[in-house]
Amino acid sequence: MSNLGILYGLGVGPGDPELITVKAFRVIQESPVIAYPKKLKGSKSYAHRIVDVYINPEEKDMLGLVFPMTKDEAVLEREWTKSVELVYEKLQEGKDVAFVTEGDPLLYSTFIHMMKLMQDMHPDVEIRTVPGISSFNGSASRLGIALADGDDRVAIIPAYDNYEAMREAIETHDAVVFIKVAKVIDLMLEVLRDLDLLDKASVVTKVTSDEEIIWDVRELDGVDLEYLTLMVVRK
Fold this sequence. Notes:
Blueprint: E1 7-11, H1 22-30, E2 33-37, H2 46-51, E3 61-65, H3 73-92, E4 97-101, H4 110-121, E5 127-130, H5 135-143, E6 154-158, H6 163-171, E7 175-179, H7 185-194, E8 201-205, E9 213-215, E10 229-234
Parallel strand pairs: 1-4, 1-5, 2-3, 2-4, 6-7
Antiparallel strand pairs: 7-10, 8-9, 8-10
Helix pairs in contact: 3-4
């Protein structure tokens, strides 16, 4: 029998603390170690803020992990390896570790890479995931938009700087949720105007959270949007 703790990938929802599952709440309460993405400047990460109301930091071992936003492979490998080893040290002590991540842990999540690296470096670790409500679900609810009905086709696509690809995605689906849209918002607006679909698009930042912003799409030209922004196009 292994004396290692269990690593949990814990989906904590899109922003509203009340949108975590009962199971996620239980795992938070029972896990002695709470791991979370940590910002270099010291402010709480988005996932950390979501679960803050449920955690007494004096009763938990709060393990902040730095995941640098860079394309430098050497830096990424070094920092990710360091984070995996920090988690493994806690698991070696027989402690369960709950890694909290916004949305769902297996859908565009930081936890996916953590899980893969842990499996490669320490295959003896038991890994479990707790699904969470995604920002896509949260946006549909807040906007009152049915993403799919009957035989409708839906796509979830990271937006990127390719006019033809973004246009094709909209043309070939009944609904598209574009994540990571902030960096290419002007291009997306151009696509929507060319397709005469501006009135079919909605843009939301930090959906369901107390910092949520539902934007007027027609006033977004040149606006500097936060990273946690998505666009829903429903024809």
